[in-house]
Amino acid sequence: MHVPLNHWYPVLEPREVVRKPLTVERFGERLVFWRDSSGSLTAQRDRCPHLGASLGAGQVIDDTIVCPFHGFRFGDDGQCRHAPALGRAGRIPKGLAVQTFPVREAHDLIWLWWGDSSRATAELPFFAQLAEGWRHYTVRTEWPVHYTRAIENQLDVAHLPFVHRTTIGAGGRSLVEGPYVEADELGIRVWVTNQVDDGRTLRSQAELGAAAQGRPPSLDLRFPGCWLLEISPTFKNFLAFVPVNDHCTRYYLRSYFRFGPNWLAKPLGWLMSLSNRLILNQDRRVVVTQTPAASSDAQGDQLIAADRAVAQFRRFHATLLNRA
Ligand code: FES
Ligand SMILES: [Fe+2]
């Protein structure tokens, strides 16, 4: 699968990897995640370098992952530590190793560096403002869509009065002023001002830009796949888009909040998850119908001024895709 290389991608939540090795598909490849006796996490290609069996079907013993086929053991660096058929005294062939990926656990997500391991950076593409002091509740789901369509859907500011007419799009604010957009290779920031169409003339980008000064963006996308919706200073929605394969994207949708007493946190989180699920399902119904699957192949799409954020996403995504 073709995705921008040399980025940290959120790929799972830490709680999803427990004692047993976990095989998942990411970037169109089968990967295995496992923890050693101290809980430390390893991510490897789920293919034994001996004869290609799935390591995920094996077990973790003595801090190695053991292939179920011929019992070869591999460490957290990927090196084969033991090949039973060669005997304890036998020499393990050089280069008998399973591909291992840099992996981190932070912000209640598992991050995997996809690309050249030696280029893994210290910084994660997360939002500094969410680092501490928040509660969050997650909705996990998978859609049969390409991640580009999934991301663009959340940068699209013209669909709300139609797709979300009964929820967040109520009120018929169909007129999109701008949006005002700032974009660079780190991401895209969008200031949304939707209005009821009372015949007014739209404000210019310069006017919208001036009005955006000092205000946090309504939507903030960090490449390759983290998104933040500003609802209020104490309430935000976060989305991690995880490319599974060309026809599937996994979502981690979270409400982050810091209001209300402790005892109310759980019911509030539950209510937010319920409404997030409802809103996301409204999007899903339409996004699954888009063709072609990947927006990068959609040269025929005719974007309008209201699609400025989507246009910027396509531009920068293409740059990142073509960069090795
Ligand atoms: S295929 Fe894994 S040990 Fe043989
Ligand atoms: Fe939507």
Protein architecture, described:
The protein has 324 residues and is α+β, with helices and mostly antiparallel strands. It has two domains: 7-119, Rieske [2Fe-2S] iron-sulphur domain (Rieske Iron-sulfur Protein); 128-322, Naphthalene 1,2-dioxygenase Alpha Subunit, Chain A, domain 1. The chain contains five helices and 18 strands. The strands form four sheets. A seven-stranded antiparallel β-sheet has the order 12-18-17-16-15-14-13, sandwiched between helices. The longest helix is centred in the last third of the chain and has 26 residues, at 262-287. The chain starts with 6 loop residues before the first strand and ends with a helix. The model has no long low-confidence stretch (mean pLDDT 96). The site of FE2/S2 (inorganic) cluster has 8 residues, from loops. The site of fe (ii) ion has 5 residues, from loops.
Q: In a nutshell, what does this entry contain?
A:
It is built from five helices and 18 strands. With 324 residues, it is an alpha+beta fold. The protein has two domains: 113 residues, 3-layer Sandwich (Rieske Iron-sulfur Protein), CATH 2.102.10.10; 195 residues, Naphthalene 1,2-dioxygenase Alpha Subunit, Chain A, domain 1, CATH 3.90.380.
